[in-house]
């Protein structure tokens, strides 16, 4: 029993003395220090020091080394020649904050001076290995060894910014055929590190997200590269895009651009990259003896671009057949002029097929009348359609309902000018409607019906991405206008189906307030005509649509009305019959 107790005590004593010996050994070695890693710059970085920006920083960062019990580590950068050893550093720098930070920010000049002190020549490249060394006074731990190439200061270029075009996703619209319009680029002037080596610039373009080391095209700046500006002709940049594979001029091209500055052997890009979206606006015009423009190219009628079918254009127009036909132009100038225009006609013997060379005029389309003329420049097709040369109201707010075959002629509008219709339709309050140019819903083809609804705001109109018009006014006769005279901004209006005379020639004077019952009211006769018989004094008057509103009115002269036109004068007082014809844009005054 005594022997067993003795063995047990000896075992406990051995364990106790063993623990004390282990603690003593650790302390005799000094405090421990954990491993850590570099985070920047990346391995195999190639750094070119810029003599024009000596104060710019070169930053090294790393994770913290886990300290021992009582002593926090300090850090330093150590670097050696690639053929050397970090045990004998070529250059070294303590970390920021007297070595305690986990970062080191050196100016380019500090790094350059250190290399210069080691006899590295100006502009020469040196290949180094580097690491961050941590120490707590007794233990030293290095990060993994990294590679870096540093080129000493020689030539240099200062930092510079891009001015314009400013970065934007909104398309810049250019005429791809114009040699007289320019896209202007501007940037901050950069300065060379070596005065004798002037800075020259190159503007680089890539597809958005592309690599500027492989630009799709470049330009040398003005004045043989010395100016901090570039003017590029619309046609030239369009040709560059085409050569780069962007052959569809009707589709916007999303680009990015920057500027590369060079001084001697040093190259530097601008601090930023700008987005640039270019839309090559392919304009199309209608011309010809059968059109209102006749054969005068400068008066050619601009066609509406089809938003859903880029490269397709259309126009609502009155044609007078038998006067030589019509053609399409992409400029208001015949070929051979400074605008580099082209014209298209019919492929001989193939109605409906268009041709740009050896073409003939388009004549065999039908009798005189209102037509929708469409030109598909991508597929070289054209359409001259009487069954779409019309416009009408369709929807639950109309008597036709949502049934296109019931629109014409009862809900039809009349063409009062190229790309402009006006008509009188009864609308029901609280219901919806649209406008349509055929007796069937469109099938998505460029030759099918087109229907129009509300755009993003009241008064704006769209064919694609539209919503139904909502009619919230008083049920009754309304004046509806479809207005495509601004081809980039289709518009519509709905006003009361009424007309009043206002002016000092009338009994009501110039007071157009809603309560003025003395204003002569005209009576609608149908087919766009209004009439009233009333006494008129010597003076002036105009036609207004709604009492209390001057926004919509007609004036005129010599029997022709104009929206917002001049006051109409009365020189002899008496009883008159006044007739207003809104479709034919005329008025008559007959003294009884």
From TrEMBL:
Stored InterPro entries: SusE (IPR025970)
Species per Swiss-Prot/TrEMBL record: Pedobacter albus
Protein name: SusF/SusE family outer membrane protein
Residues of the SusE outer membrane protein domain: 36-132, 166-259
Protein origin, superkingdom: Bacteria
One Pfam family linked to the record: SusE
């Amino acid at each position: 029993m005594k022997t067993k107790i003795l063995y047990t005590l000896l075992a406990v004593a051995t364990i106790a003395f063993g623990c004390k010996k282990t603690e003593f050994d650790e302390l005799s070695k000094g405090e421990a220090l954990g491993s850590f890693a570099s985070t920047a710059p990346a391995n195999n970085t190639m750094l070119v020091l810029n003599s024009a920006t000596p104060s710019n920083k070169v930053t090294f960062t790393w994770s913290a080394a886990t300290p021992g019990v009582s002593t926090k580590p300090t850090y330093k950068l150590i670097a050696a020649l690639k053929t050397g050893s970090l045990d004998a550093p070529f250059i070294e720098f303590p970390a920021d904050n007297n070595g305690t930070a986990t970062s080191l920010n050196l100016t380019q000049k500090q790094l350059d001076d250190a290399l210069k002190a080691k006899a590295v020549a100006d502009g020469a490249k040196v290949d180094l290995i580097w690491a961050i060394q941590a120490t707590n006074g007794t233990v030293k731990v290095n990060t993994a060894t990294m590679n870096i190439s540093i080129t000493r200061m020689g030539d240099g270029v200062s930092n510079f910014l891009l001015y314009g075009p400013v970065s934007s996703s909104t398309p810049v619209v250019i005429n791809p055929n114009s040699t007289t319009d320019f896209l202007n680029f501007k940037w901050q002037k950069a300065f060379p590190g070596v005065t004798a080596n002037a800075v020259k610039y190159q503007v680089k373009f890539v597809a958005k997200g592309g690599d500027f080391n492989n630009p799709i095209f470049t330009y040398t700046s003005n004045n043989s590269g010395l100016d901090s500006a570039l003017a590029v002709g619309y046609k030239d940049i369009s040709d560059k895009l085409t050569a780069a594979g962007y052959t569809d001029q009707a589709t916007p091209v999303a680009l990015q651009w920057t500027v590369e500055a060079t001084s001697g052997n040093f190259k530097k890009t601008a601090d930023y990259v700008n987005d640039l979206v270019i839309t090559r606006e392919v304009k199309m015009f209608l011309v010809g003896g059968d059109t209102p423009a006749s054969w005068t190219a400068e008066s050619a009628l601009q066609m509406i671009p089809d938003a859903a079918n880029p490269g397709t254009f259309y126009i609502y127009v009155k044609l007078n057949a038998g006067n030589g036909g019509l053609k399409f132009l992409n400029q208001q100038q015949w070929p051979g002029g400074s605008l580099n225009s082209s014209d298209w006609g019919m492929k001989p013997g193939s109605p409906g097929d268009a041709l740009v060379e050896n073409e003939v005029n388009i004549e065999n389309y039908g009798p005189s009348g209102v037509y929708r003329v469409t030109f598909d420049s991508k597929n070289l097709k054209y359409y001259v359609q009487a069954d779409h040369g019309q416009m009408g109201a369709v929807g639950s707010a109309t008597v036709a309902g949502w049934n296109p075959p019931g629109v014409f002629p009862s809900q039809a509008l009349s063409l009062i000018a190229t790309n402009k219709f006006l008509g009188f339709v009864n609308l029901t309050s609280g219901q919806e409607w649209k406008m349509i140019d055929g007796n069937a819903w469109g099938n998505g083809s460029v030759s099918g019906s087109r229907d129009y609804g509300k755009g993003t705001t009241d008064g704006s109109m769209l064919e694609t991405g539209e919503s139904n018009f909502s009619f919230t006014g008083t049920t009754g006769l309304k004046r509806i206008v479809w207005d495509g005279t601004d081809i980039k901004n289709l518009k519509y209006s709905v006003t009361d189906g009424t007309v009043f005379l206002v002016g000092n020639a009338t009994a009501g004077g110039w007071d157009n307030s809603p309560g003025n019952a003395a204003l002569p009211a005209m009576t609608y006769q149908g087919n766009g005509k209004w009439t009233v018989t009333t006494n008129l004094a010597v003076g002036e008057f105009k036609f207004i649509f709604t009492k209390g509103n001057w926004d919509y009115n007609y004036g005129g002269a010599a029997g022709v009305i104009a929206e917002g036109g001049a006051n109409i004068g009365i020189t002899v007082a008496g009883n008159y019959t006044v007739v207003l014809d809104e479709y034919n844009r005329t008025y008559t005054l007959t003294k009884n």
